What does this fold into?
Amino acid sequence: MTNISNQSVLHEFRQESCLDVRKLAALHGVDARNETLCRAILDLERSGKIRRIRGKGRNTSFVLATFET
It folds into this structure.
């Protein structure tokens, strides 16, 4: 299992333009309901770095909203 942080989640979004929660969890080697992953996603969404485009729960899809490095 990898260390889950806001930066590790952003890294995955920089590799793929659109990810859902299940795919993001699989890339990190955790369950889609992992508290640390959910917290990182919520933090990034609140700060405007990722944007929700469709779905609810584990099927929610997000895209990268900024292009900063």
